[in-house]
Amino acid sequence: MKLHQEVLILFALTVLAAAGTHFLHPRAPAWHEADESLRDDEITLQHISQTWKNDVLWIDARPSALFGKAHIPGAININEQELESQLIDNIAVLQDNRKPVVIYCDSSACQASRKIRDYLAQRLPTEEFYVLRGGWSAWFQEQQR
């Protein structure tokens, strides 16, 4: 009986360690994203690379402090907290843009990119606005490979 309890305890600790690693590790895969189909306004890094050879206008919807630490090269920062001032600062780039616009925030759980996308799509002449599936996390993980 004692051996049976030890096996159950060891099994429970193993499951706990595996779950902790999955949820806390910065490069843990987002399993739920693999099964979900893309929303109409979403796009993947693979599609961006294959279709446009990464020649898009990147908009980082994260707070300025995170943008200042790291961002996709060439991205501009337009976030909810400073929307009006950042829009004015970047209006020439946005109005002259003829490339697809890809907006990202931290991850798929973050909705800031979708809010910025909807806001800009109503106000700018560009027709192609997309949200990067997986956000900054997906792009950063791809760069680590």
What report would you give on this structure?
By secondary structure, this protein is α/β, with parallel strands linked by helices. The chain folds into two domains: 1-31; 37-144, Oxidized Rhodanese, domain 1 (3-Layer(aba) Sandwich). Helices cover 53% and strands 11% of the residues. It has eight helices and five strands. It has helices at 2-24, 31-35, 45-52, 64-69, 83-89, 91-96, 112-123, 135-144; strands spanning 42-43, 57-60, 76-77, 101-104, 129-132. It has a five-stranded parallel β-sheet with strand order 1-5-4-2-3, with helices on both faces. The chain is elongated. The model has no long low-confidence stretch (mean pLDDT 87).
Radius of gyration: 20 Å
What overall geometry do the principal axes of the alpha carbons give? elongated
Total number of helical segments?
A: 8
Report the biggest beta sheet as strand number plus sense, adding barrel if it closes. Answer: 5 strands, parallel
Strand content: 5-15%
| CATH fold field value of the largest domain | Oxidized Rhodanese, domain 1
What is the CATH C level class of the largest domain, in words? Alpha Beta
The CATH architecture of the largest domain comes to: 3-Layer(aba) Sandwich
Tell me the name of the CATH homologous superfamily of the largest domain.
Rhodanese-like domain
Q: How would you write the strand order of the largest sheet? A: 1-5-4-2-3
